[in-house]
Structure formats: structure tokens, C-alpha cells
Amino acid sequence: MKVLVTGANGQLGYDVIKRLNALGDEPVGADREEFDITDGKATEDYITALRPDAIVHCAAYTAVDKAEDDRDTCRKVNVDGTRNIALACEKIGAKLVYISSDYVFGGSGTQPLEIDAPKDPQNIYGITKLGGEEEAKKCQKHFIVRTSWLYGAGGKNFVRTMLQLSRTHDTLRVVCDQVGTPTYVPDLARLLTDMVETDRYGRYNAVNSGGYLSWYDFACAIFRAAGIPMTVLPVTSEEYGQSRAVRPRNSRLDTTKLAAAGFRPLPDWQDALARYLAAEQP
Predict the structure, then answer these.
(1) Which of 14, 46, 61, 125 is catalytic?
(2) 216-251 per-position pLDDT tens digit
(3) Which of 7, 89, 242, 270 is least enclosed, having the fewest CB within 10 Å?
């Protein structure tokens, strides 16, 4: 199977390509150098010439705070870019996997968010990711996969940041009122590549198993697993401050649809963290 992976230079795109290679598929990685997803004609020309069987659309504008002041660019990439990809997919009959976010929900309450829970994004990033979901539906053979709290090899992520800060700090303040589940990129990449081999289309939530925790809880788990002595102080979002964009308090994603559809759920988040630390600790 020939699979086009957009955003190939990002951490998720990298692991999707790595997984596809391991499966014996034919991945084609593309980033801005190959074509501009916000340019409809360039996108259509590239995809119709390549004629992939599926596209895993990892390219996105993900700078959540910066997006508040760069709304046009964020919308062009996350909404217009996804529409261009979806229309080209539909034209050649390819499958589309669109990566969405917990930010499409309002972030209130304490109950796990099911697929059809009300959508009420609180920042421009969430608004554009929800807009991208609607555009992805222009391809009939679509998978929409909502995830959260990604971390993996390379790039900036919460685990790497905590480990780096431990070199210069003996006390850290971490928010305790934002709750969700961390997601290890190789585990998500495995699921996405499993999906493209099927025709079980639709919307899914996908995060690691093992329950829900706050960023504070996750920070404590990171230092404990890494054997690093650290005092971690729980603070509210208001006490922490410094965020341009509003973050959801409730990012508890209900992933029961994965197993119901026959997909293997992602492993326990503690197991995932141990694998990250063993393989990729900076």
C-alpha cells in the first residue's frame, strides 16, 4: 500500500513512516518542500500524480498560543489545508486519516468525553481543528482521530521539558486542574497504520490506556520513573498563568470505540513512559 504522510518532518509523521516501513508498505513523506497544503492546485496536482492508496494527514499548525495572534495562518493550514487534502483524496478514491485534538471539546466537566460529546473549542487552535474535522468528511473514506498530550522522539514535548528543567531546578510548579491522558507517539502511529489497512471509517478518540491524570500527576510520574529527585508543587491554571490560549480542564477522552471497532487500544501510559525514558531520554 502506498501511503502519503503529510507533516513528515514532525514527530508523529516520522513515527508513522517508520511504522509503515516496518509493515512493508510504501510510505511517501511530504512536507512544505514537496507541496503547500494551503494551495489547492498544488495539493491536487501532487496527490493526483502520486496516487496514494491512503493519506495520513499529520501536517498541522500546532503552536496553540501563537495561533491566537496568527489566526489566518492557523486557519489556512488546519482548515483550508485539510479541505485541499480531503478533496484530492476523494478525487482519486484514497483513504484519509485526519489527526484531531481534545481541544475540539469545551473542556468543562469531569466525565470522559465520548465521540459525540458537545463541541465547544475555547481557542483558535481548537476551532480550526474542529473545522478540519468537517473538511476531512469531504473524503468519504475518512478516519478522524482525536488525541491529546503527545510526546515522542525529537521536538518539544512535556516529558522532554520536565527532564531538561530538572537540570537547573529542584522545585517546579505544574498545573493540577487540567486532566487527560498522555499519548506516546509510536503507540499512536501504530494505531493509525492499523487503521489505514481497514475500511472501518469514522471518528475515534485515541490516547494511551491506564486512566486519567493531571499534568502535575504526570510530572511526578516522570521524575519518579526517571529516578530524579524533584519537588513538584501543584498549582491551578490561574496561579500558573502565562498562557495566551485557554487550555481545556477536561481532556478525558473516552476510547471505548477503538476496541468496539476491532482496533487494538494503545498500551498503558506508564508502560509508554517507561519505553520513552529507556529509548529517548535526552
Answers:
(1) 125
(2) 999 999 999 999 999 999 999 998 877 788 899 999
(3) 242
- Main-chain dihedrals φ then ψ at residue 250, nearest 5 degrees: -110, 105
Instruction: Report d(CA 58, CA 50) in Å as an integer.
Output: 18
Neighbours of 95 (CB within 10 A): 23
In the predicted structure, residue 188 carries a pLDDT above the cut 60: yes
In single-letter form, the type of residue at position 193 comes to T
Gap between the Cα atoms of 222 and 163, Å rounded: 8
Q: Are strands 179-180 and 142-147 parallel, antiparallel or unpaired?
A: unpaired
CA gap 121, 7 in Å, rounded: 23
Burial of 65 (0-12, 13-18, 19+ CB in 10 A): middle
CA distance 87 to 137: 9
Does the pLDDT at position 282 exceed 80? Answer: no
In degrees and rounded to multiples of 5, residue 55 shows phi and psi of: -125, 125
Q: Please answer whether residues 138 and 87 qualify as being in contact, where contact means their C-beta atoms are separated by less than 8 angstroms.
A: yes
Q: What is the DSSP letter of 54?
A: E
Q: Check pLDDT > 80 for residue 262.
A: yes
Written as nine digits, the cell of 228 is 530524579
Is 125 annotated in the active site? Answer: yes
**Would you say residue 35 has pLDDT above 70?**
yes
